[in-house]
Structures are given as structure tokens and as C-alpha cells.
């Protein structure tokens, strides 16, 4: 095993200019991540200089067997925390050989919204709080929970410390540092209310980069749990009953909201979000009805509400924002398994472009 570790970790730059690029894309379910690697003749920092590539879409539920070729378009580059050196992770989106985006390619439509002059002028900022649950391999039961049984009630676990409160911190810290190494704008981590559940935050990130960074961070987390022999779940309600679900609270602001008088802009934006509540809920993740029950720090899925410092509302405005008269708000509706390209672009489209 020591030899295997040595081979896994040695520095390629000592012997070759070539690098390894790991191409990453979203599979047919809309939440599964796929990847494969290729050798490049030297370092690359610009996605436009990376070659397009193809894969068998029939094996990812994205193309029929008789016409299975799907094309990968490189869109964002991150440093590879696993191979290190000058090796890279490449976030891609997916197209037919004729250049048409696949239905699962949510980045394409999001990029069109973020490139709209009115949206670009507002410089939309996002801070996404990605919650997830660590599971024991093979049994699909949260890490640290007794097999077939339950830990003590919620209360001591949120931001808790100690072997009886925090389960999987080594995985969480490894992920935190790996994301920083990769160049992801990860801004923090914390233990969540349900034991075995954690959260990382990405942002503030501008426009389409928020989606790129969340997908890259999810990929790195999947790889780290693979190494650790655990499973990461993005299910919005992994354990039924009196346990918190998992969301992806999305904090948002525009230039107008951040400037003087921004609080009035925020209130108008929230009013527009309320008018399109059903459309947003339909796009905010699968199984979200199991989470948005009106309990466990959520609003009921069928009712739109907002409030200052209220974690039981659909939209929460912070005390600081109310006090300063400008700032940001938090959309608490998105589920942990939401597509960040969909959620971020839909919020921008509704609040900036949509005319009721």
C-alpha cells in the first residue's frame, strides 16, 4: 500500500510537461456527476483553449444507444486537489454533435440569462448554503447513528463538538481545504441540526460562476467520501420524522440592492418572487415537498411568506439589511439537490427581467 500511495502522490512536473485534465459533467438524473480524464500536452488556464471531448450518452441516460455520442464543452477550470501540481478539474456542459444543448444541460440556458445586458449590469451575487448528509456505506444510514437505531433528539448537534455530536468532521475539513486549493470561493462550513448532516457555503460568487463552483465543490465532496468509504446524500429529507431536512439556501443581491435605497428594491424583488412561487418551487429540487412542511425551520411548500430574521419563512431578510436599508436576502426554498444553474438564473430572471 505504501508503494500505491507513493505512485498516487508523486509530482508529474518532475518528469513531464504534460498534465491531466479531469472532465466533469452532470449526468442524466440531473444530480449525478460523471467524469473522465485525458492527458494534455501542457498547462491550460483558459477553458476556451481546452479541446471538446465526447462520451457515451447511452450509459448516462442522455442519449439512445443507436446515436449515443454526446459532446463535452469545457466551461470552467479548477485546480485538481487530488492529483495536484498543474493538473486540473474541468466543469463541462453537454451538447449533441450538431451543437444543440441536451435537456439536462441547465448551464446553457442559465448563461443566456446571465449574459443579458440588464442582468450583467446588476452584477448578481450569490451565496449558496449547501447542506448534505453523510451516510454509512452499504446501509444508507447517517454516519455516527447506531445501525437500525437513532441518536438522541436534535439540539446538541448544530455547530457541535465532540465524538457524540459531530460525525465525519475529517471528511468535512478535508473538503473545505480541497475546495480552497481548487480555487472555489468556499466561505465556510458548519455542522447542521441533524447529526451526520453538514453544510458548506460558496460565495459571494457572480452570475454563472456560482453554479460552476457548487458543481465543482459537489464533485470534490463525492471524491473525498469515496476515499473515506462513506456516501454523501443530497436528499432533501433523508430521514423521515422529527429530523431537519437538507436545503440549499440561496442568498442573493443585485447592485441596486447593495446601493443606497436597496431595501425598497429588495421588497419589490420579493413581491415578484411571491407571484411566481409555484414556478420556483417546481424548479427548486426533487422531493422538496418532504422537506418544506412548515416545521424544522421551513415554510410550508404551498404558502409564500417573507420576514426579517424569520427562518420559518420562504424568504428571510437579515437584521443588518433592514437596519442599513440595503444588502441581500435569502431564498430558503431550494432543496439540497437543486441545480444551482437553474436556481440562480431563475432568481435573476424573475427579479430583474420579468415584468408582471
UniProtKB/TrEMBL annotation:
It comes from Clitoria ternatea. The keyword Endoplasmic reticulum does not apply. GO terms for biological process: glutamine biosynthetic process. Pfam families: Gln-synt_C, Gln-synt_N. It comes from the Eukaryota. The lineage of its organism: Eukaryota, Viridiplantae, Streptophyta, Embryophyta, Tracheophyta. Homooctamer. This is Glutamine synthetase. GO terms for cellular component: cytoplasm. Residues 19-99 form the GS beta-grasp domain. Residues 106-356 form the GS catalytic domain. Gene3D superfamilies: Glutamine synthetase, N-terminal domain, Glutamine synthetase/guanido kinase, catalytic domain. Belongs to the glutamine synthetase family. Keywords: ATP-binding, Cytoplasm, Ligase, Nitrogen fixation, Nucleotide-binding. It is found in: Cytoplasm. It is an enzyme of class 6 (ligase).
Amino acid at each position: 500500500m505504501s508503494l500505491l500511495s507513493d505512485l498516487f502522490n508523486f509530482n508529474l512536473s518532475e518528469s513531464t510537461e504534460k498534465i491531466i485534465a479531469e472532465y466533469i459533467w452532470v449526468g442524466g438524473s440531473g444530480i449525478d456527476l460523471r467524469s473522465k480524464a485525458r492527458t494534455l500536452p501542457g498547462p491550460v488556464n483558459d477553458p476556451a483553449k481546452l479541446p471538446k471531448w465526447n462520451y457515451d450518452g447511452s450509459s448516462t441516460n442522455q442519449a439512445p444507444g443507436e446515436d449515443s455520442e454526446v459532446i463535452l464543452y469545457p466551461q470552467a477550470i479548477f485546480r485538481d486537489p487530488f492529483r495536484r501540481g498543474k493538473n486540473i478539474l474541468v466543469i463541462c456542459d453537454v451538447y449533441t454533435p450538431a451543437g444543440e444543448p441536451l435537456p439536462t444541460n441547465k448551464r446553457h440556458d442559465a448563461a443566456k440569462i446571465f449574459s443579458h445586458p440588464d442582468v450583467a449590469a446588476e452584477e448578481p451575487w450569490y451565496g449558496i448554503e449547501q447542506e448534505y448528509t453523510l451516510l454509512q456505506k452499504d446501509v444508507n444510514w447517517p454516519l455516527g447513528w447506531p445501525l437500525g437505531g437513532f441518536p438522541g433528539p436534535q439540539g446538541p448537534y448544530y455547530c457541535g463538538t465532540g465524538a457524540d455530536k459531530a460525525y465525519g468532521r475529517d471528511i468535512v475539513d478535508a473538503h473545505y481545504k480541497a475546495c480552497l486549493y481548487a480555487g472555489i470561493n468556499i466561505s465556510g462550513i458548519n455542522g447542521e441540526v441533524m447529526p451526520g448532516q453538514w453544510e458548506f457555503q460558496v460565495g459571494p460568487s457572480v452570475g454563472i460562476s456560482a453554479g460552476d463552483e457548487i458543481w465543482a465543490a459537489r464533485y470534490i465532496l463525492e471524491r473525498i467520501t469515496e476515499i473515506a468509504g462513506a456516501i454523501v446524500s443530497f436528499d432533501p429529507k433523508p430521514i423521515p420524522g422529527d429530523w431537519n431536512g437538507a436545503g440549499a439556501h440561496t442568498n442573493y443581491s443585485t447592485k441596486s440592492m447593495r446601493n443606497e435605497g436597496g431595501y425598497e428594491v429588495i421588497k419589490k424583488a420579493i413581491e415578484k418572487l411571491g407571484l411566481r412561487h409555484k414556478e420556483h418551487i417546481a424548479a427548486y429540487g426533487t422531493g422538496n415537498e418532504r422537506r418544506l412542511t412548515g416545521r424544522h425551520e421551513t415554510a410550508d411548500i404551498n404558502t409564500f411568506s417573507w420576514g426579517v430574521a424569520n427562518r420559518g419563512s420562504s424568504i428571510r431578510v437579515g437584521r443588518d439589511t433592514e437596519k442599513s436599508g440595503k444588502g441581500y436576502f435569502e431564498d430558503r426554498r431550494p432543496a439540497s439537490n437543486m441545480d444551482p444553474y437553474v436556481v440562480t438564473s431563475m432568481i435573476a430572471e424573475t427579479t430583474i427581467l420579468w415584468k408582471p
